[in-house]
Amino acid sequence: MPNRFRSDAAASTPSSEPAKVMIVDDSVVIRGLFGRWIDEDPDLTVVATHRNGQLAVDDVERSNPDIVVLDVEMPIMDGLTALPKLLAKKRGLVVIMASTLTRRNAEVSLKALSLGATDYVAKPESTSQTSTSVEFRQELLQKLRSLGAQVRGTSRGEPLVRARRMRAETNEGQTASSALRHDRLDARKEMQKARSHSLVGKDGISLRSFSSAMPRVIAIGSSTGGPQALQAMLKAAGNTLSRVPVVVTQHMPRTFTTILAEHIGRATGFPSKEADDGELLKPGHIYVAPGGLHMRLAKSDGGVVAKLDDGDPINFCRPSVDPLFESVAEIYGAASLAVVLTGMGSDGAKGTERIAQKGGSVIAQDEATSVVWGMPGAAARTGSCSAILPLDQIGPKLTRIFEGTAK
């Protein structure tokens, strides 16, 4: 008989008002372009545009946006400098960093996530490419709609604030005092109590028993909020990572995934890199799907290798979590262990079902600690998960699984 799990947090009824967006970019062309795209969407409206971070900081309380699209490189005050000032002035503010695909900008964007930004978009290299890129326009508007609906439907973004604060504290290595930890736990309990009645219906979410087979791989899928969640979870797993290969699909463009793999390596102390096509997987190594390429696993000469391809996007994503999870299920069967972390959309849900069909185990991050409970929520609703846990409990759970003490 499966367990029953009732979600810790249910989505509130969203406001019918459009989400309010501020655009901050030193290019008048980009400000106009983004403004037209946003105002054409009935779920969004532009309330202010500014050419530098200082003007945005000075205006944020007056214009009162829900979301700020914040350029990285600007004169007078750049995006990274403006970010903490904006967050300090407007509680619940969602900030999406926007930068071109350079290594420096990718580094800055990932740093911004650790300081409280919610997400990022990678702008094409030129203004003309930006104006004609249907894919970029869709990505920007999808993120604005999804995050805007969440902010306006969940006490003006309080869950995002809480998850963002937890990410920043973890990334900077800060240790909260006992009193602060108890305050945060009490706040979470109150939120869970208030919102525990309506996520998926009266019957809750079904859980499966964990596989009795010892895992031979850890496969992870993540998106919005994923970079910090990945580092925190894998660091908490400790020496467990030495037992098996770890494969990761994080929704990110090229360059970003290179830097993410480096950050994960520094956080965990284990070798971490973008996977190469045909590369043999080794225990104790972490392999990240390169931006713009799907990653699957395949058997080869008695071992397992990474296979990369630039096929069509799946679930509007490339890399996509589903092909990775589905290939893991086919190769490892009941010895598969997958984790679905924070992210918008439903990518990974089909893959979790396949892993469950083959007898493997899946853990999903809970809503209270997710920046966006899209991907983990979709996985949970399939009934394929063996646990739905707060982020800080997933790493220790992995350790117990490999010790044979998990229940």
Q: Describe it for me?
A:
This is Protein-glutamate methylesterase/protein-glutamine glutaminase. One of its GO terms (cellular component) is cytoplasm. This protein has 407 residues and is α/β, with parallel strands linked by helices. It folds into two domains: 19-163, Rossmann fold; 208-403, Methylesterase CheB, C-terminal domain (Rossmann fold). 42% of the residues lie in helices and 20% in strands. The chain has 14 helices and 16 strands. The chain has helices spanning 28-39, 53-63, 79-89, 103-114, 127-132, 134-153, 158-171, 178-194, 226-237, 256-268, 321-332, 349-357, 375-381, 391-403; strands at 3-5, 19-24, 44-50, 67-71, 94-100, 119-123, 205-207, 217-222, 246-250, 272-274, 286-288, 294-300, 303-309, 336-340, 361-365, 387-389. A seven-stranded parallel sheet has the order 10-11-9-8-14-15-16, with helices on both faces. A five-stranded parallel sheet has the order 3-2-4-5-6, sandwiched between helices. Helix 9 links the parallel strand 8 (217-222) and strand 9. Helix 7 packs across helix 9, helix 9 (226-237) runs parallel beside helix 10 (256-268) and helix 9 (226-237) runs parallel beside helix 14. The longest helix is centred in the middle third of the chain and has 20 residues, at 134-153. It is globular, with a radius of gyration of 21 Å. Mean pLDDT is 86; it is low at 1-14, 155-159 and 167-203.
Kindly estimate the percentage of residues that lie in beta strands according to DSSP.
15-25%
- Report the top-level CATH class of the largest domain: Alpha Beta
Give the number of DSSP strands: 16
Report the radius of gyration as a whole number of Å: 21 Å
Going by CATH, the architecture of the largest domain would be 3-Layer(aba) Sandwich
Strands in their spatial order, largest beta sheet: 10-11-9-8-14-15-16
Helix content: 40-55%
Low-confidence stretches: 1-14, 155-159, 167-203
Distance between the termini: 15 Å
DSSP helix count? 14
How is the main sheet built? 7 strands, parallel
Average pLDDT rating: 86
Query: What structural class do helix, strand and pairing data support?
Result: alpha/beta
Q: CATH superfamily of the largest domain, called what?
A: Methylesterase CheB, C-terminal domain
Estimate the global geometry from the Cα principal axes.
Answer: globular
Catalytic activity: [protein]-L-glutamate 5-O-methyl ester + H2O = L-glutamyl-[protein] + methanol + H(+); L-glutaminyl-[protein] + H2O = L-glutamyl-[protein] + NH4(+)
Domain CheB-type methylesterase: 213-405
Organism: Pseudovibrio exalbescens
Subcellular location: Cytoplasm
